[in-house]
Amino acid sequence: MDFHHSARSLELQDRVRQFMQAHVEPVEELYYEQVKPEASRYKTPQILQDLKRLAREQGLWNLFLSGEHGPGLTNLEYAPVKEIMGRILWAPEVFNCSAPDVGNMEVLANYGTKAQQERWLKPLLEGRIRSGFSMTEPQVASSDATNIQCEIRRDGDDYVINGRKWFTSGAMNEDCEILIVMGKTAPDHPDRHRQQSMILVPKNTRGVRIVRDMLTYGYDDAPSGHPEIVYDNVRVPAENILLGEGRGFEIAQGRLGPGRIHHCMRLIGCAQRALELMCQRAVSRVAFGKPLAEQGSVREDISHSFCEIAQARLLTLQAADKMDREGNKAARDLIAAAKIVVPSMAARVIDRAIQIHGAAGVSQDTFLARAYVYARFIRIGDGPDQVHLAAGGQGADQAGRGDGIGRDAVWAPPLKERILALAKDPRLITIGDHVALGHPLVREVNGTWVGSSCMQLLAGGAMMLQKTTQLTEGERARLDSIIEFERRHLLADLRAGRPDVILVDTHLLSAVPFDWLAWARSDPELEAELSRYREVEDTGGRVRILVARSGSER
């Protein structure tokens, strides 16, 4: 890794730092004063509106987004900029870089239709409205997203939504106009990760009822809020579905990866500010005849904090770098590691700063109490520590057995170069478990991701079982239903997306060979679509590439 930030990142760091010092830091407490009155508790305070206009005028706006909607910063370039914003808890919104809007804008930019983008993404990018993300439910362990119970039922040209959510980030704000809701459209689907969908629900839709705002350690996080919401026969048009039925888990994973890194960046900024306050307090206060800074335990706390912040920062930058070079999926272990390390680190550092400040540390006179609540909450939000620890342990176990060797090769630069050589601005479909979430790769080649399928894993695995296992009629029928669902799902993507390139991951369970292309071409409907493609020369055995034939070839 190059430990020098790019010239563009350094320039933006300097500009954001100067903006924060000149305009945001002097009014930090004024913001909270304007939020206090009950009558305007959830109204965006005027000082924030003024700062947003000023930031946009100076071009410090939507810095998190790449491509046509943003300045094109990489995650590695954006990370230190977000750290500077994170020093004041509400500052990211000044630059239109706050949660949950950041994640929701990324969802709409990556998965939304043109109509959805025009209606909702455009005003979000302009900062005219805000949004909410409605996923967590009080009745189930929502850290396992397959537990989600909210019903999204098709009814003619509409979907009808029934369920109860809480901690719907951002939904209390008066400027919040759109909610992204996750629920189940196919609760009986044999693949638990294809049961969920995400849908756009305007906040003012009949049947959307806010029950209460949820507090965290007594704080309500106004003016954004995290309310409990009941969806009671909420009816929205069918075109509000995101990406299609059964794609909710897929979208959630694509949304939460970058979101976790953004939280880490902010928390490092909080921890760095806490360390600086700790140092200032230590040299300005005297106890037992000498400054706190000369007390051995205080020095140790400061030293530990400095080391832990530096370690966490490097881990976060390493994850950001890998996201840029190889895609979010390839970087998932590092993203999980950062999500484990950074919130706990920030909570420890802030807690030390609170201790050194004494009573002032737990009062409203410093930012420390609010910052501690944020750090502690993020050990649960966007996936609790235990989920990421379990995933990291499983990855290490696979690597120890050799199962994980070569997995990252799917995203190796030569493959990106091959795709770019085959088609300019390609439309891609990805097939197979390791390339199924192909959108990170597609973004890097400036293409359009039009579909994905785990068909090779699911259908191939089902066929293996049929060949090698004694099955009951019921078990055989269930496997047949898996194969048929995946066949129809892929066929719809091929017909609707008209991809230029199809990537097929050849890595599958090795017990029984499974030639996906041979199987697909045995199906008349799939063969009719695949006849439009030719397979290019071998790429090393891991990924097979099909490219659309030219008019003369057909």
TrEMBL record:
Domain of life the protein comes from: Bacteria
Has keyword Flavoprotein?
A: yes
**What does the record give as EC number?**
1.3.8.7
Q: How does it assemble?
A: Homodimer.
Pfam families associated with the record: Acyl-CoA_dh_1, Acyl-CoA_dh_M, Acyl-CoA_dh_N
Q: What is this protein called?
A: Acyl-CoA dehydrogenase
Q: Which residues form the Acyl-CoA dehydrogenase/oxidase N-terminal domain?
A: 10-127
The segment(s) forming the Acyl-CoA oxidase/dehydrogenase middle domain are 133-228
Q: Can you tell me which family this protein belongs to?
A: Belongs to the acyl-CoA dehydrogenase family.
InterPro entries noted in UniProt: Acyl-CoA_dehydrogenase, Acyl-CoA_Oxase/DH_mid-dom, Acyl-CoA_Oxase/DH_mid-dom_sf, AcylCo_DH-like_C, AcylCo_DH/oxidase_C, AcylCoA_DH/ox_N, AcylCoA_DH/ox_N_sf, AcylCoA_DH/oxidase_NM_dom_sf
- According to its UniProt entry, this protein's organism is Bradyrhizobium yuanmingense
* Names of required cofactors: FAD
The UniProt record lists the Acyl-CoA dehydrogenase/oxidase C-terminal domain at 246-391
What UniProt keywords are attached to this protein's entry? FAD, Flavoprotein, Oxidoreductase
Q: List the Gene3D superfamilies.
A: Acyl-CoA dehydrogenase/oxidase, N-terminal domain, Butyryl-CoA Dehydrogenase, subunit A, domain 2, Butyryl-CoA Dehydrogenase, subunit A, domain 3
Provide the leader sequence positions.
none
